[in-house]
Amino acid sequence: MNQSDLNNLILRIYDTALSQEAWPTLLMDIAKSFGGAGAMIFEVANNQGDEQVITPYYSENYDPEAVKVYFQHFNALEIEDQWNFAEHSGTTKKISLVDDIEFIKQGEIFENRPNIQALKAHGFKHRSGSLLNKDSWQIDRFAVQYGDDRGPSTSQEKQIASIILPHVAKALRIGRPLIHSKMDDPDFIKRMDKQLFGVALLDRNEQTIFTNTEFDRIVDCHPIFTKDSHGKLLLKDHENTARYRSLITQQSVHASQGAYPRRESLTFELEDRNTSLFVEICPASDHPEVGKLPSGTRLITALDTSLKHSVNGEIVTRFFPLTKAEKDVLSLMAQGFSNAEIAELRCRSIETINTQAKTILRKTLTRNRTELVQLSLSLNSPFSMDWLV
After folding, report:
1. Which backbone phi and psi does 330 adopt, to 5 degrees?
2. What's the pLDDT score for residue 273?
3. Strands (E), the chain
């Protein structure tokens, strides 16, 4: 793959943030870029002790019914394998492919495994996988499947994957809370105006190509952004200004945090000092409804945690081991109640609520309420909710 093709593929990856329907074709091309026959994005959810693999996205050459039947029959083996992929992927910042043969038990014959035999019946054999988001091991896992005429990934293919997959990690993180269905509203602008997140597209001169209603409200209500008379979006002086400028103007800085895409986010403290504006930025180049975007366009998403947000704590507990009390406290935190207010509402001591709030942050690997609310809203996206049956 030459540099031009690689750059184009990376731009297409970020276009999924606003257009998730692009994933099937994109995953096919990602798989091909490092020798695969297909690829999938996984999640592992837990329903009262019953773990299940969820595959929200898979490459276009896969038959949906065949994928469904495979996971119905081999969910237990896939759960075991997915955790092996995760553990071997490790806790380093880098995203690296791990081959399935790396965790075969001593004395076990690889090709005798029932799920491998089923894969071979469909023309596949080896798989390689990795955690894309090491802040949240249950979500955003990647696996590439290889044809039965070859072995697992080569060192050169692993190198290409290590360049591409951090961009997949960041695109999934930004796009997850923006998941929507055209069935809900066929009009792009109306769909965007229903978002809880502010959404903006800026050209390379920082002129606004598009802003949704929530982004306009944020600009009007908070002293973070402003627009000049020509429609240029300006960030007022802030300690995050240098990082904001680099994300807006430089292509190379995106996905620099590898398996920790949350670290590229920007947090702007709001007036009451207990709430924040959570901002993420990535490239954008094309959208099936908006059309081809100018070179250097950036997508900005912004979450205002001074607003009351409704979070289904039950969904969050499918991915993180929260107790019932912690789940209830989480829902109140998302609604903007202070710890003191939550203590009063729940008839508990402030010390108890402080401890529960800290435990929730620890269990979800979030650093503050802003990150917690963003993560919770992300997990409340449709494909996670579809499993709650």
Report:
1. -55, -45
2. 61
3. 38-47, 50-58, 98-99, 124-131, 141-147, 198-202, 208-211, 225-227, 233-235, 266-269, 276-283, 286-287, 291-292, 298-304
* 3-state class (DSSP) for residue 139: coil
Q: What is the mean pLDDT of each run of 10 residues along the chain (389 residues)?
A: 92 95 96 96 82 92 94 92 86 88 83 90 93 87 94 94 96 87 74 92 94 95 90 86 94 93 90 81 93 95 90 84 92 90 94 95 88 84 46
The pTM assigned to this predicted structure is 0.90
Place of tokens 């072995």: 151
Token couple for 144: 């590439």
- Predicted confidence at residue 186, as pLDDT, reads 76
Residue 224's SS3 state is coil
Q: Which residue has the tokens 């190198």?
A: 159
337/204 same-domain check: no
CA distance 229 to 226: 10
Predicted confidence at residue 385, as pLDDT, reads 39
Asked if residue 182 belongs to a domain, the reply is no
Residue with tokens 């240098």, as numbered in its chain: 242
**Residues 30, 65 within the same domain:** yes
Pairing of strands 276-283, 266-269: antiparallel
Range of the domain at 123: 3-177
Residue 88 CA: distances (Å) to CA of 80, 97, 108, 131, 255? 12, 9, 18, 9, 21
Structure tokens at 244: 């904001």
